[in-house]
Amino acid sequence: MVDILSTPILVTTILAAVGLGIPVLDALRKERGANNNKIYSMIAFGALVLSIGIVIFRVLSGEVLPAVAFGNEVLSDDMFGSFFAVAFLIVSIVVAASSWTYMKGRANPAAYYSLLLLSSIGMVLIGYSTDLVMLLVAWELMSIPTYALAAFAKRDPISNEAAIKYFMFGALSSAILVFAIGLVYGITGSTNIGVAVTTFATLGPELVPVGLLTIGLFIAGFGFKMGLVPFHMWLPDTYEGSPTTISALLAAGTKKAGFAAAIRVVILGMFALNTDWTLTLAILAVFTMTLGNLAAIMQKSVTRMLAYSSIAQAGYMLIGMALAPYSQEALTGTLFQIFNHAVMKSTAFIAAACVAVVLASYSLEKYRGLGRRMPITAICLSISLLALAGIPPLNGFWSKLVLFGAAIDSGPLVEWGPYLAIAGVLNSALSLAYYVWIMRKMYMEESPDMSRVKEPRAMVAVLIFGAVFMVGFGIWHAPILEFASEAVPNLAETMTIISTNSTEVSSGSGTGVNEVPGVFPPLSSSFMLEQAEGTHTN
Amino acid sequence: MTTAEGVMGFQGIAINVWLIWMLPFIGAALMPALRRNKPNLLNYTAVGFSLASAILAATLIPLALTDSEVHSQINWISALNLDAGILADPLAIIMTNVVAWISFLIFVYSVGYLHGERDLTRYWFFMLFFIGSMQLIVLSDNLLMLFFGWEGVGLASYALIGFWYYDKKKDYVGRERHMALGIPMWASPTHAGMKAFLMTKAGDIMMLAGMFLIFIYAGTFGFKELVADQSWAIEMSSQNLLVPAAILLFGGAVGKSAQLPLNEWLLEAMTGPTSVSALIHAATMVKAGVFLVGRIGPLFFALAAFDMAQFFEVIAWVGAITAFLLATQALVNPEIKKVLAYSTGSQIGYMMMALGIAGLSTQFVDGYTAGFFQLISHALFKASLFMGAGALLHAVGSRFLTDMGGVRKHMKKTYIFMLLAGLSLAGAPLVTSGFWSKDSIFAATLESGYTYAIPLFAIAVIVAIMTAFYTFRMLGMAFFGDPSKHLKEMDAKGHHVHEVSKVMWVPFGILAGATIAIGLIGIPFEEELHNVFAAYLDTSFGIPEEGSTQGEVMTGQQGPGGDESEEEREVEGRFEINYAAVAASVIAFGVGGGLGYLFYIARKLNPEIISKSIVTRAIWKFLYNRWYLNSILYWGTVIIPMLIYRIIWRYFESTIIDGINPAFQFSMSSFSKIVKAGQTGITQTYLFVFGVGIMILVMLLLI
After folding, report:
1. Rounded distance, CA A364 to CA A342, Å?
2. Sequential DSSP letters for A175-200
3. How many Å apart are CA B200 and CA B259, to the nearest integer?
């Protein structure tokens, strides 16, 4: 049994109680004024802060297990899950706080915050899941509220279109995931990820194609959330059409949940299969980042631009996943980038929401002269854009440095590794074209109306938090990098577990054994150069 | 070393050290959040933060006296194995207190000086930013963080020199329409800010190069680590890179401390508010160069196996020549702040010379102590003089000495305090700190045993004579004689010269008092400083107080202190007064001060006599045009490079580069359009792509 006092259970309990309590409270309250929004926003904010406090407290007090690849239970209270929980909860907090302003005067605030909290539970649980069924439940718990949230402006056709597209893809990908899980159960007889992976390592030759098909389906199912090309088509439409705070949640939160799930399932699962799947992911990565950046350049709407930008960012994160078998550092880089991206992208979206609230437009043309009209929003947006582009000393620079550095250092092991870094660097340069374009509009052009407008306080507070985070953890990035490297399961150990377990299985069953991939070198958390060279000479 | 606490791990006092430099930054960040229309709120907040930082600095003093240190590090950039850390050793503790307390007093002064200024937010932001950066330089335990602080003070300096960026004529420096070799010798605040920024950058680039050169070989920026493992030095010296790297580092100090050949920016820097001149361009920032040499000097000296004499020779001679050059120019300048600026550069030259001498002598600690004694004493009296000058500007409304005269009757307090601080600058015997610090430099030079010690000593004495002369000239022109035409006109209009407010005169009164107080206890003070540094150098760098580390330097140089026996390694035993040096100081003050007195205070002689002879006129013009160095610099580094740039722009950039750019732009936007065309908005297409995507993916995996 999972310990009642473990992090995921505590967080789930708090968020579920509050999330379900808000509609009840709303039903009991007679008043129907604008105050409701403020009260619920504050309650949701409080519950989320309490949850993140619990997660961080448990991490700091050392009660959390070190990151494990597999667990016997359905949930494992480990560093990997805690890392993602912190990232997701930051995003939820940002969304809840800025909704204070954004939801002002809109209908059904109680349902809004309730759905937000329920979706947060789903996101948090994905990180902790070690069982495919648990994962699927968490996945749906995360996704279904967001379908409703995307359509929250129910009289707005664009919002509805966004939600419908999102829902159709969501339904499709859920179906694919269920199918994939079914296949896994069919092949291995278990839904526990650990058991499944170990069994995968001993698949008979006739079953390997089925195994690969399963992996492919998983990639497609999770890739829809991650925004990987070619599963990205719904994404710009949805991010643009949804209420902007929800876009922030989708781009910064649920998208990362896709990565969490993918790392738990796909990467570990792929270890077991002795095929060259890394190149496939690398190709996906390059396509994703290039296409995202190219499409973003010519956009006229800022939210749409940010949507494409988050596709491109998914490409960078995929670099680390593609290189996972060669370097622990690469996966650390992915996690690091995920964490930073959660803050950078949510800040950027909230800034766009702030402009939308005040000027009622997402159009890039409306951003002209924003530097003087809304100085705080403009500077925070600029910081987040520069961080997204990876300009030092902001936090985005460091995660890209770790990622690309790992890619270069993997050169001796895999010849296409360094090319990923080159693609990433070129794409970063390309991405500046539109990031700086927004800044140019804000600071170097003037709009006909240059009057100073009032910036909503709650959003400004959120934006300043984001800006301070990006600058502060840019100057001193060590804590998050350390957290990220703690959160990556020790892959060498994982390999050993898989190989020993599979040997037992194979000796028991007597079927042909697939050799464990020989590419896997001894790992450490430092840069891989020495080890890589050592392996090379061997 | 009596390190009371461990080097790593949590130390209560380490928090203080971190806060000393972080608090001002926090205060700076707070400034824009405060209401602009409440000047008192801004003033109190800023002064409060600087006081808090100063009090924290004061808590470290006991550590310096017991030769302890605080060293705390945190993991910073793990990929490069870099740690962020602070190091409060006796050197840093002394410096941090000088910076913190003088800046606190100047902050108080600013409240009066900038009364009614509309851009207080900007002023306080950069002042606090400056202190934070300066303290970061002082307390950093590695070259990299030091460099961040270094650039921070450069930025603050730039922003504050150009503080009055609306370029009103009254904020200019230099006499209008004064040209030399076709270059204007007057400058607007914005121009001056730019000039200062660019010139110091030239030094910074050298410093950066030196830093990274060392980093390549040592793999660390940390001062402690560089001392602990000296294998990098062996490798560097085998490539003949050690001395060049050291000199490159010194290049940064040259720029920041306005030493030859990067000395020209300091004079134009006087366009900033006088409080800024006092804090940044006299008392603290320009000392950063000296501090840097004080940080790396012992390090290079401790590399006993290598001959670093060249490095120290460069320092000593650059210092001596700058001291001479700027002192001569101070003799003829008509603007009170510029006289003080020349004097600052000149006095820093003394400090550099002392530190250079330290490395060339058997007794490293003598020159080292002399340099830092001069630094402390100069910080006190020059800050006081600048603030007094600010009070004068306030009262008289003109920056020219010729527009003053006879002011002493109306501004008694300013007069007395400036006189005291001025006497210290001039080196009035026995009662002023300036006398003792200068004397210690003379003594260190005489006792060094360096081959060319006598020429250096001669330069130092000549500079001392000139210093006394121009100090009396400045005081005499401002406070004595008859009121100038300008003052009479003001009087006629009903603007009477009057004493400045308490908030202004109290700070510089305190500093003037301090310089006399240190003068009165000059010998014990110097001895204590000597002991602190002797113990520090011994424990941190293994530089013992006696015994030669450099082979070619002969020991047993005559002089009262030279023949101490070996067993008297005791810190107490070494310090003695060198009577030759004392005599030289007294004579220098007598000659220079006497002449100055006759010309400008007693007015027995008329300074106009120099215009009678063609030779003296030519010399006057040469000095007044700053040895033409400024003009040469402009021609060589601004005008000619700009011409070349125009040619490149015309024939390369606008034809070739601009010819290629549109093609690149066009291709990218075409790609973008193609990609966009795929995004039809029709859900069926999307689903189709999704389905095809899965198929391709699975096929890729199956191959």
Report:
1. 23
2. HHHHHHHHHHHHHHS--BHHHHHHHH
3. 10
What gap in Å lies between CA B126 and CA B103, rounded to an integer?
A: 13
pLDDT tens for B621-670 read 888 888 888 888 889 888 999 999 999 999 888 888 888 888 888 888 89
B119-175 tens-digit pLDDT: 889 999 999 999 999 999 999 999 999 999 999 999 999 999 999 998 888 888 888
Distance CA A303, CA A364 (A): 9
Residue B679 has its nearest CB partner, among A233, A430, A476, at A233
Say whether the ipTM exceeds 0.90: no
Phi, psi of B220, rounded to the nearest 5 degrees:
-150, 155
Contact indicator for B170, B130 with CB cutoff of 8 Å: no
Q: Taking the CA of residue A178 as centre, how many other CA atoms within 13 Å lie in the half-sphere pointing to its CB?
A: 8
Whether residue A236 and residue B668 make contact (CB cut-off 8 A), yes or no, is no
Provide, as residue numbers in chain B, all residues whose Cβ is less than 8 Å from the Cβ of A296: 672
Distance CA A285, CA A290 (A): 8
Measured distance CA(A438)–CA(B592) in Å, rounded: 64
Q: Rounded to whole angstroms, how far apart are CA atoms B310 and A393?
A: 38
Asked if A294's CB is within 8 angstroms of B681's CB, the reply is no
CA atoms of A162 and A149, how far apart (whole Å): 10
d(CA A345, CA A388): 8
CA distance A212 to chain B (A): 6
A226, A262 Cβ separation under 8 angstroms? yes
A476 vs B: CB within 8 A: yes
Q: What is the DSSP string of A471-501?
A: HHHHH--HHHHHHHHHHS--HHHHHHHHHHH
Contact B700 A283 (CB under 8 A): yes
Query: What is the H or E stretch that residue A106 is in?
Result: none
Give how far A258 is from chain B: nearest CA, Å: 17
What DSSP string describes A92-124?
Answer: HHHHHHHHHHHTTT-S-HHHHHHHHHHHHHHHH
